[in-house]
Amino acid sequence: MALPDWVTTCLSQPVHYAICELGFEKKDTYDINNILSGNGEVCWQAVTEHVCYLESDQSVDFIKSIRLLGPVCESVNSYFKSLTKEQFVIQYASWFHWTNCTEVFLEVFDVLQSTQATEVALGLMKLTSCLERALGDVYLLKGNDCPFLLRDLLASEQLADIFGQAVMNVLRVFIGSPHGLNLRNVLWHGFASPQEIPAKYCAMLLFLTAGLGQLLQTYLLQNKGVLVHRPYVIFVSLEELDAFPDLNNEILSIAEELVKLSSFVLKIMLPFWIAALTAFKQNRYADSVILLLPQLEVGLRLLFTTTNKCPNRLLTAESSAFYTTFDEMLAKHLDNEEVNQLPVVLEEPAMESDFLWDFLNHQEGPRIRDRLSHGEINLETFPREIANQIVGFAITILCRFSDGDMFSLKEHMVIKPLMNCASCYRSRFHPISRLKKQVLECMKSIHLWPELATMPEEQIQKLKGLEGNDEANTLILMTSEILSQLQHCMPQNCCSSDDPINGVLIERLLVELCDTRICTLYSPRPVLEVVVVLRKMSAQCHQVSQQVLAGAGLRCAQWLNRTLRSRQRHNYGRMLNSIKFLSPVLQLILLLITLELVSVHSVCKKNPSDYQQYLKFLKSVLQYTENLVTYTSPEKNKWDETMELTKKTLIKIRKISDRKLMLVHLAT
């Protein structure tokens, strides 16, 4: 893919005009004292009178409003430049406390004093995400479910009640409306180059945020309210995100060379890439990712428009159409139902699509872009681990979309490990991947069961409730027979005809089956439907295991301390009986889940009637596991019912297995 030097902007003509020209048409000098009181408070009435309305329906006339507000923004920008940092802090810092991220807004003031266009754009992206989060907190003073989209949040009745509709209309001129400047979306989706964002709009939004703080303080005093801030998202299990090795300065230096040569990078966006790598070197991890994510989007948009032969989609859409964003670029089909060619390009290797879905889209993944752009993450504590993965991914994609002249860089000894990691990447947050993880975690829990009955065997035999020992042995035998039937589905090194109920072998089998590569990209609805059922089954099995571990441990301690009443001793005996067969039964169910998973794509191609019968069977096993959770709970302790229910379920599983309506050979 040759670098399109002809691309001088990613803003369509109307959007470019609105952002870069419209607000500069009026040459009047606006007196800052018109909108600023003697004590530094914003005179909102003087600001709101610059917003114009259409005669037809009294909706905001965005074109006229941008034109009229242009000189006001210029005046605010000049005013801020005239202040020292100390003066700004004394006069305005307290008005940013309502945002819960005062330091970010003070940093934006510093940015306005510089001539670095990239820093202004970064400051504006951080400002809009923090402002959106704060406005959401304010919304919750009156509403329940905060709107996900900034557009809907700014148009809400709740915020209009608190700040006034006229004030909200001023904000909508700058952010949140596709008919206005829409600065937040234009930047976060990678459409604007650094030089295309006037600093005066950043200054104006900083000014307006302070003004909102003044209005909110008055509202809270009058209504005796307290603003509660929602907690930030905290990333746990960061090791799950570990795809690339730690990036050192040598790798980053090579990346800086790659950026200048790769066809993935538009030349007008080069300053963003350099700034992102510099921020990572300086341990400013949130800044690095905020700068990089929009550039990954615009680079993929360039690929998308090239491979799908729709060059016009490289530009911002008008207010009447949709942007070409990550969601559409990673979809299977275009809006005209034709096959999207971008995933085809990215499928060699499949890593790019899987990685992007994992980090950006899957609901159980980190959803980095959404959470950063909507202000859900504490920027000061953003984890290096996540930034390392995003930058590492960016470097591999720079290498992939580069020409032969860069061979020496791509083959460099510090770059090759990154490329190797990329080629081995598998989805970690697709529901199929999460199911694999669930199964293995449940098996680890079951492996703790042998440690339960620690009392001497002769004492166990004294317990009443062990009369059902023969029935337990029968259930174990039935489980063993079913496992033997499953031998044809198992890898040879994990089979044991002598002892099919062998926890070590079953665990080895589960690990091997879970290591089977299963296509996760664009899983059809029937596959996802089955996976939902299988995940519920696995979760129920895990809960049963946890309940047995907790309950048996407690009862054993009570037995040894002689604090069990007669009825409790009898019940404890039945529990120990049930544990004998429940362990192999739960392992059998985990095995069934995993076998179904690795063959799920084949099964879901069956005719509708067979598929429905198959799904009905799975749901019946799910019902069994749900009942087990109830029966084995400390409140119920229904061990006789557990035994009877298990017997019925094993009979059903054996019938289905015999008729081959459920299991599919792994080779098919």
UniProtKB/TrEMBL annotation:
Pfam family, one: DUF4209
Superkingdom per UniProt: Eukaryota
DUF4209 domain sequence ranges: 131-211
InterPro entries: DUF4209, ERMARD
Protein name: EMARD protein
Lineage: Eukaryota, Metazoa, Chordata, Craniata, Vertebrata
